[in-house]
Design goal:
Alpha-Beta Plaits, 8 helices, alpha+beta, homopentamer, about 250 residues
Chain lengths: ~250, ~250, ~250, ~250, ~250
């Protein structure tokens, strides 16, 4: 059971490494439970939930999985999983097995985003004091129950801009974000060619009001002119262990 | 039963506060009743409606809920609930419970909008006489049976405009709205990052002809050039207690 | 039964007034019959059709309803009703009752448009001879079996244009339409804020070739540059009494 | 049975006239067979196919119908019919009857396009030699098994351009098409106001490589700048008698 | 059984030729297995899978088919087939037969793309050294488990640009791609008029990080300004023999 918790305890893929290093493949898979599922009897639904746990356990050496409840905060979606591994194939194999369980047969896969982590592109070119702030600011301790995923696609002008121009814009972008480094954690995935996106931006926070202000601050910098897509969909959910999501689905 | 009325009488979340103060989270959840629901026998549907009341009662200390009938006036939607609380998590928990009832199993969640209330951004910078009009005009007494929700997204130029420019545009916007302050009540939610929106605008009125004229007046001010999205969907419904909506669904 | 005919004979809402005066609310509700309906036995479908007639009769004092067959000429839609009354609430109550019949349980509500009628905006400013033509041209007698509904949304530049500019453009628009006044009847609804539209334009004709030429003529005037949406969907149907539509659905 | 063949032999509407003269109404109706159809037993499906033949026969004096298989070459669609008659109402009545058969109850009407034929707009203004080429080039003999339908919508600038400008552009367009007159047959329908389109372009060919080159040639002329919509959807199918389509559906 | 493997061994269409020569028609058909399929008993699903093999065998002389698993990496899709032959009709006939099997009755055809191969347009005009690199670089040996399909549509300005301008842009495009010639295999199909696309670009790789960098490099060249559509959808899958896909579907 511990296997399903947000921080699996043993024999698992090196979660810390997968969550922090470059060259890791991340897949975000959003699911809506089919309406016919809710009409099954409760015993069947409870059994199906148990089967899901076995799948998590089976893949624990190759992928690390985080789980989020969207139900209530986003239409057409009940939950999503964020899967990390060193090969996209491992992500696929895990998800194929998850979708092959009895519960899986009732899951509608609303959205899937694929990306890869990389070393920071722009930070090395920032002035030293900004670099220092970015690298040393430690997020406030304590749980961050909310997670937000915002897929992003840039316009052609962004990609055709000389490196200098993009550096200056990303400096302005980063300065706007500095006041929120303590309350909003952020992680970036590159998605060009792996999906109809250029970036997947992932956030965790305990303070949604701060997050709302962060996004407004980012809307006010010139780089925003080059976002052909920002959201659409925005995923707003709460971080919950798979057991709790399964329990909600089995009610 | 009183719990379901628009103005619950006791032991409830401080409705007045939640509806007027900044820092409150609002979730608008739009539902379509699945076609298979209507083919259930009437007793089952009546029982399911009763279950919904229990959910409203259970959450009454944390959330305040308003209910609206869309059926007949909007495709793909039967009703929506507007949920307010001091934490988005409370909104989610209420909606998860609502969707977990027997009726909930037949609800298709067509749209969800999330926002947060804030102190007015622009009013403090208005000329004194305009400020006075805005602050002291009291809506006409009497019921306002219609509610309209218009989600809004601004373009990058709006957000990049200096504060002065936005102030001038919002002054023009507000002056255009003044003639309708008595017949159209308005409430604003900020949504950037909490949804694929920047604002959720909510209106109540008894006079839809006045409301139509208000929107035309707002289309005629320069700020309108910066609405990348205005509506899409526009929700037009009538304020009805949950009992009445349930009664309609149980017919 | 006469109640269902296009021109109900007695005790009904003042149809003439509702169809010609300003300040009247119009709701266009488009329906597709669910595929499971067609698999019901014929007796059930005939009984369900009879129930619909009772709903028409019940609301006859408050709303006037016209009915149109879309099936065959438009995807995803079988028929639509055009409902007029002095309060949007009456339109909603009629439609809620219609959708609450046994047939209603099989109706998918593909589109709904809401609008309000108003006195002409631009005609009073036209030169006298154009005013005279517009006011005195009588449509050719005889049935006009086809009806077309085109929803329209204007761009921000349209609304921000000084009245003079819009007057000049609407004069050009009207002159282009004059040759078709005898063969194409037209009615206009204002929809800003009541729907994701600015106007609902409604046409009746016996000559679709003339109607095609009218629309081409209107595409050739400068006002066309400001149509952000024109159609999408265009409804093309034939005017048919509800009995005939029900008979088709009960085959 | 001959009635269903591409060239019905007797007592039918004057097919030649309907396919070549102006003032004829054309309706293209695209259908997807519902997934539940395929799960019916074969006898039921064979019986249902026979019923369709009766409908074709019943309308043979008023409409002429061509049939095309899309299955395999286009998502969400299995076949389409092209219906011609001198009144749109005849097209509707035929399609209502077709959709009223047992097979019809399983047909999802994915798309419908409506148009009208007219005398050529631009040819009379072309230089004499171009006119001659257009009028005298005879398509290569032999079957043309492929049919392609491309719906088109022009932008406001196209319609507002003086006749001279459009003449010049259509001359360039026609010159680009001349090399393909022998291998690609073409027919044009005007759709403004009858659908959310301005034109429906219909092609037949035995050589899809030539057709691909023709479309590239047309993309390279200035008129292409004014195509707000070109395709979306493009229908690519093979001309097949209704019997063969029914046989495929009854397998 | 070998017939289903990626490289069928005997009596088959000349796979090598079909995969390398110009004038070959390619159809990409994407399928989602209907949710009701997963609720069938396992024996039925196994039997249905066997039937699919027979269809592959029947068409082996006319078409060559490659198969790919999308499930887990792309929403609304489980697998796709890439079909090549010398006539589009052969592709259609194969797919009609595939969709006519028992499994086929449960397949939802999410997307289909049609194209044709041609000799290179721009390479002959490149400087000699670039031509040499493009023609002589041999992809790294070893399996390339990932396949990506990116449909592309160019804007009118692209097609109206003089040949020289397009040559210069494609030279820049090709130079950006050179560093990835060894790790990313590429194949191009022309689609104008055969689909709502201009090109279908197909890639195989073992290194998705390289592929991500290739796409970023291509986003940085001026030709990118003329991509009206790039992806939407992007298909990311893994190359798997049909047996393995069937086995996954039959689990």
């Amino acid at each position: 059971m511990a296997v399903l918790a947000a921080q699996p305890a043993f024999a698992a893929a090196d979660r810390e490494k997968l969550l922090t290093e470059p060259g890791v493949y991340g897949t975000f898979a959003v699911f809506k439970v089919d309406e016919t599922w809710w009409k099954l009897d409760k015993a069947t639904r409870t059994f199906a939930a148990a089967e899901v746990k076995v799948v998590f356990q089976k893949h624990t050496e190759r992928v690390t999985v985080d789980t989020y409840l969207l139900r209530g905060l986003m239409e057409q979606a009940d939950f999503f999983v964020r899967v990390h591994s060193t090969e996209m194939l491992h992500n696929q194999n895990f998800l194929v097995d998850l979708m092959g369980t009895r519960l899986g047969k009732y899951l509608v896969n609303t959205y899937t985003f694929n990306g890869i982590t990389k070393p920071p592109n722009y930070v090395p070119g920032f002035p030293e004091d900004l670099q220092k702030v970015v690298k040393t600011t430690v997020p406030d301790p304590g749980p961050k129950p909310y997670a937000i995923v915002v897929p992003v696609r840039k316009d052609a002008e962004w990609w055709l801009m000389p490196q200098d121009g993009r550096n200056a814009m990303m400096k302005e972008h980063t300065e706007a974000a500095v006041p929120y480094l303590k309350t909003v954690k952020r992680k970036l995935y590159h998605a060009s060619g792996l999906d109809d996106l250029d970036f997947i931006t992932y956030f965790e926070t305990a303070k949604l009001d701060d997050f709302n202000n962060l996004i407004i601050a980012l809307e006010r910098v010139k780089e925003n002119r080059h976002n052909k897509q920002f959201g659409g969909p925005t995923l707003l959910g709460t971080i919950r262990p798979m057991e709790e999501i399964l329990e909600i689905l089995a009610r």
